[in-house]
Design a protein that fits this description.
- This protein is α/β, with parallel strands linked by helices.
- It has a single domain, classed as Carbamate kinase, CATH 3.40.1160.10.
- 37% of the residues lie in helices and 21% in strands.
- The protein contains eight helices and twelve strands.
- It has helices spanning 16-31, 46-57, 63-70, 72-87, 119-126, 153-163, 197-205, 213-222; strands spanning 3-8, 35-40, 92-95, 102-104, 113-116, 130-134, 137-139, 145-147, 168-173, 194-195, 226-230, 239-241.
- The strands form three sheets. The protein has an eight-stranded mixed beta sheet with strand order 3-6-2-1-9-11-12-10, with helices on both faces. Strands 4-5 form a two-stranded antiparallel sheet. A two-stranded antiparallel sheet has the order 7-8.
- The longest helix is centred in the first third of the chain and has 16 residues, at 16-31.
């Protein structure tokens, strides 16, 4: 099976119109004969909104309940995207972290992935389903829901790409790659066609919000190459991180 993993962040799945664009990218790969596993974030600012609501209740939330709350945004996205794919004539199935399962330690709010199951996903792909997985979440050994830290869906995508030996891992976002400076501030900023893990890590540590620091570390450790590209620019070639 030629498996590819695609990840779409919050701004790429913010509303139904955007989810339709996401569908076109997925279906394009399916038509090439690829088996596609899609990881998604919560829609738009959903996670921020949940945290704001939590703050109305307590300034010092129980860490377990915090993860129980902030993990729910992704569930909405996976269900909607799977429905849309079916509406477009492509069979699909959505999975939460625990259903995969993505097993983590119990470090609530910033959990580390210990193990990823592949059986369920491989069986679904073998029966020609597009698999949609909720990013950012997992389950610990006591069956508590955990989250991987803000921006953690990137990490989910890398962990799955590694486990499934995917031929590529594409991270779709709202910029068409990695720039030397913020292209919204400097219009002439240089875009990289290729960048090393170490350079990317240095940029993540300096506050570039393109890829989660943990995700780049995991990609380096597992030698998963990442393609960062735009959801909204047709034929975006993006930046390869390897
Ligand atoms: N929804 C989560 C967050 O906002 C995870 C992610 O976007 O990757 O941090
Ligand atoms: Mg995000």
């Amino acid at each position: 099976m030629e498996i590819i993993v695609q990840k779409y962040g919050g701004s790429s799945v913010a509303d139904t119109e955007k989810l339709k664009i996401v569908c076109t990218h997925i279906i394009k790969e399916v038509k090439k004969g690829k088996k596609v596993v899609v990881v998604v974030s919560a829609q738009g600012k959903t996670t921020d909104k949940l945290i704001k609501e939590e703050q109305e209740i307590t300034k010092n939330p129980c860490k377990r309940e915090h993860d129980m709350l902030v993990s729910v945004g992704e569930q909405i996205t996976i269900a909607k995207l799977s429905m849309l794919l079916k509406e477009n004539g492509h069979d699909s199935i959505s999975y939460l972290g625990w259903q995969v399962p993505i097993i983590t330690d119990s470090n609530f709010g910033d959990a580390n992935i210990l193990e990823v199951g592949d059986e369920k996903i491989l069986n679904s792909l073998a029966s020609d389903k597009i698999v949609i997985v909720a990013g950012f979440q997992g389950i610990d050994k006591e069956y508590n829901i955990t989250t991987l830290g803000r921006g953690g869906s990137d990490t989910t995508a890398i962990a799955l790409a590694d486990r499934l030996k995917a031929e590529k891992c594409e991270i779709f976002t709202d910029v068409d790659g990695v720039y030397a400076e913020d292209p919204n501030i400097n219009k002439n900023a240089k875009k990289y066609d290729k960048i090393s893990y170490d350079k990317m890590l240095e940029m993540a540590n300096n506050g570039a919000k393109i890829l989660h620091n943990k995700c780049v570390k995991l990609a380096k450790e597992k030698n998963v190459s990442i393609i960062v590209k735009s959801t909204f620019i047709e034929e975006s070639t993006g930046t390869i991180v390897e």
